[in-house]
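Justification of computing resources. Each target in the renewal requires a structure prediction run like the one illustrated here; the chain below, 192 residues long, is used simply to show the kind of job we budget for.
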Amino acid sequence: MTELLPLVFTSGWASGVNAYATVLLLGVLGRFGGVDAVPAALERTDVLVVAALLYLLEFVTDKIPYVDSTWDAVHTAIRPTIGTVIALLISGDASSLDQAVLAATGGGTALVSHLVKGGLRLAVNASPEPASNIAVSVAEDGAVAGVVALAVVAPWVAAGIAATLLVAGVVLVVLLASRIRRAVRRRRERSP
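Resulting structure tokens:
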């Protein structure tokens, strides 16, 4: 189980940010890159086509302020589920207990990273211009691509980066939430 944990954790983190890109990247790396760690189910043509189409839809939707937050709300159940399924596929023929631990790790990590993404996007949507939303979305896509690609080559390094990004995201959401609450409180105090 220990050798599977970093790939499960990393793919879970990535699934919480962009599940369709994660499935697509893992599938492409497995099918065309010869990466043995990628489950065969992710390499299937139908899975790759559907993941590519959904990724394209998310790529566009994720750049539009407030539409992205609605998309994130809908995906609150989808992203952790995909993180769990990827973890189960990666666990392969591991024991039942190991599969359960890996599935919980993948799904739990996906849920936390999804909540961080959603929280940060709500804060970014509060900015008056759309450029920051596009920049954040592109940065998220780049981070997912980089971390997933690294995960199949250096899983522990990728897991360390994913963990760092996850902790930094949680801290940032907490800081931004308190600032947003303070700003709302000040505004209420000024209004008659």
